[in-house]
Amino acid sequence: MTIRIKKGQTGKSILNTVIEMSGVDLSLCYQCKKCSCGCTVSNHAKSPPSEIIRRLQLGAGNELLDNDLIWSCVSCETCYARCPMGIDMVSVMDALRRMAIERKAAIPEGNVPLFNSAFLKTVKFFGRTYDLGLMAIYKIGTSSYVQDADKLPLIFMKKKIAILPSWSANRKTVKRIFKKASHGK
Ligand code: SF4
Ligand code: SF4
Questions:
Q1: Residue 144, number of CB atoms within 10 A of its CB
Q2: Domain residues of the chain, as ranges?
Q3: Ligand number with the minimum distance to the CA of 74
Q4: Which of 73, 80, 93, 142 has its CA 20 to 30 A from that of 112?
Q5: Is the shortest distance between the CB of 50 and ligand 1 below 6 Å?
């Protein structure tokens, strides 16, 4: 695939900010595309991971932040495991997500950002994820109170979700991580 980014069509390059936030040296990528071949979600996204890196290398600006792969990436680390240069794509995606939120970039349709935020809130509060709390925040955010409610009894019966949260013994450490991460913005 040929990628052209015409001068004047992009904002200021975000490459250095992504490198700084992720700690990943993107100049090492030589576009072998092994990451994209293994990516579990790129078939359903506008661009595969190797293209995201190439666009960054070519000086893409904020326009890259509305790419749907940023939000559909499930952090499975398949790309990382396959990359001969050890490029940590998950950290790159995390950096792009943070930038998209901070810069109020266009966010694809759907509730992925809401789900992300609900997940992080439960981890921050309980020190680990709490599925029922996550579901409650998500349902309030989407006003979908009764959707799938009929499945709850079976879920509880089969003990797929705990009713009460399980507090992590390392809550203070987790809180410190969140504090450090928010200072790093
Ligand atoms: S596998 Fe690594 S080197 Fe190859 S295209 Fe992907 S990020 Fe670049
Ligand atoms: S971590 Fe994200 S970009 Fe990498 S293979 Fe998994 S879904 Fe694709």
A1: 12
A2: 15-102, 112-183
A3: 2
A4: 80
A5: yes
